[in-house]
Amino acid sequence: MGVVSEEAIDGFLELIDQVEEPLKKTFENVHQGYLREHLSRFLKARDWNVCKAKTMLVECLRWRVDNEIDSILSKPIVPSELYRGVRDSQLIGMSGYTREGLPVFAIGVGLSTFNKASVHYYVQSHIQINEYRDRVLLPSMSKKNGRPITTCVKVLDMTGLKLSALSQIKLVTIISTIDDLNYPEKTNTYYVVNAPYIFSACWKAVKPLLQERTRKKVHVLSGCGRDELLKIMDITSLPHFCRRGGSSGSSHHTEGVDCFSFDHPFHQQLYNYVKHHYETQGQAEPSKQGSFHVGFPEPEAEIAKTIESELHKFENCNGLCQPAYDRKGCP
């Protein structure tokens, strides 16, 4: 960090010391002992403006207190068949780590249907993955590597992206807004793979609306991106869709258990972790449970409307306007 950055963090520390106790308690779960590194995330998100960063952090902490986020890792989604349904329709998982120790999260953007549960379960699942990453995985990797590891990388698979994605924009935008406001700068790089023309058109329209620091994080790779990704991770950490060129739900995998599946070690460990923390409260496993309702922030309307507009263009011309698109795939 440069001198200006260190001075900004010092100023931020003085302001944060003034917040009330309930917020300080939840902030411990946010920074996990790496105070300066996490303050810098909020500063980056507000272009190093200390006052704006403080406002953002305080609003994040209030959101955590109001929605009991600190206890979300003791709120299992039950029965397990329901959680399996969430996993089959909200394709996300962890495939491994980069050589620098950053967790690699794989997301099947194009084939996620979000049609097996209510919106609240999908939001609950997403936040649980965030919290497990921040409170379990990252501290463990930091200890193992002897240095702070506070971010991850995400590989976004666009296989199967179609006009039907129009119906999912609201939910995806809600989840993205939750991340932007409450988990800022947690993703080091976004790698986009298996991108069809429809993605390229949407990305061209949305890109100018994003802040420069966000644009720089997004790398659209050729085909399944295997060669580029192998520069930063071993093949064992490569998402399955980068090995064979396409996503699949857990019921369609052909090469072992893919990282989206409920049967994958990551999801088994996460599910058992949440179940164990529920049981340690002295309660039997619930046979049925209502979803964990979280207050939704107001989504970024401009970006959502732009994506919606681009998708409607394809819908109105029934695909006839789509030019030939030659995408190099992977065996």
TrEMBL record:
Q: Where is the CRAL-TRIO domain?
A: 79-239
UniProt cross-references to InterPro entries, sorted A to Z: CRAL-TRIO_dom, CRAL-TRIO_dom_sf, CRAL/TRIO_N_dom, CRAL/TRIO_N_dom_sf
Q: Which Gene3D superfamilies match?
A: CRAL-TRIO lipid binding domain
Could you identify this protein by its name? CRAL-TRIO domain-containing protein
What species is given as this protein's source? Brassica rapa subsp. trilocularis
This protein's gene is called: A02p045310.1_BraROA
